[in-house]
Design a protein that fits this description.
With about 230 residues, the protein is of the alpha/beta class. The protein has 10 helices and 7 strands. A 7-stranded mixed β-sheet has the order 3-2-1-4-5-7-6, sandwiched between helices. Helix 4 crosses helix 5, helix 7 packs parallel to helix 10 and helix 8 runs antiparallel to helix 9. The termini are far apart.
Length: about 230
């Protein structure tokens, strides 16, 4: 009998190169899985993120970790100009947006200081090696009074909802991911929530990076959080 190779650990998959390879591997089913696992709510949450910026039409927004371009589409649908940034070539290759896309590290953005009016990020923070550095880099490329919107998973505060959320994320998501895409990746993605700092820490990081009026809003019965701020 052939020896079975154990699946990579969550810790190993969090390494940058393994992380890129994982997203390249699941890119072809990424949009389908987002729709299935969020019960079709993912695009509504992205539109909410764009609306929370409050930027006028024509403003330039950078989508950090744009993936296949859903958030770029939401920004363009609101009349904003958008440039998507992602390090995973496979995700960019499977993009469906008409927005210009650039393969780059969101910790080292290819933009001049103050070049953009705002930035958004959709469910990518927990895959960033240094979230504080990500916030600082976003602040660097955004003009004064520009806006940011980071949408990410969260854990509900209500104990009953948190228990149901934990069961769904840790048990159901990997099974569905294994059937429709890649089981190892969809074991990692729910588990990666453990790398996220607490809500208060995230808000503190935004303030330290140079944002004021920072705010956290709960969506999806507390399973999703939207962080916003204004560049000082």
């Amino acid at each position: 009998m052939a020896r079975l190779t154990p699946p990579p650990s969550v810790e190993a998959l969090h390494e940058a190169s393994e992380n890129r390879a994982m997203f390249d591997r699941i890119a072809h089913r990424y949009d389908l899985m987002n729709r299935v696992l969020t019960l079709g709510l993912n695009n509504a949450w992205r539109r909410r993120t764009v609306a929370a910026l409050g930027l006028p039409p024509g403003s330039l927004v950078v989508d950090l970790g744009c993936g296949t371009g859903d958030l770029c589409d939401a920004a363009q649908g609101a009349g904003l100009r958008c440039v998507g940034i992602d390090v995973a070539a496979g995700m960019l290759a499977h993009s469906h947006t008409s927005a210009p896309l650039v393969r780059a590290d969101i910790l080292h953005l290819p933009f001049a200081d103050g070049a953009a009016d705002g930035a958004v990020c959709g469910f990518a923070l927990r895959n960033v090696a240094d979230i504080a550095a990500c916030f600082h880099e976003a602040a660097r490329v955004i003009r004064p009074s520009g806006r940011v919107g980071f949408i990410e998973v969260a854990e509900p505060a209500n104990p009953l909802l948190r228990g149901a959320h934990h069961l769904y994320f840790r048990r159901v998501v990997p099974v569905v991911g294994g059937l429709l895409s890649d089981r190892d990746a969809y074991r990692y993605l729910p588990a990666s929530i453990s790398w996220l700092p607490s809500p208060s820490e995230l808000l503190g990081m935004l303030r330290d990076a140079g944002f004021s009026d920072v705010e956290r809003r709960s969506l999806g019965a507390g399973a999703v959080q939207l962080l916003t701020g204004t560049r000082t």
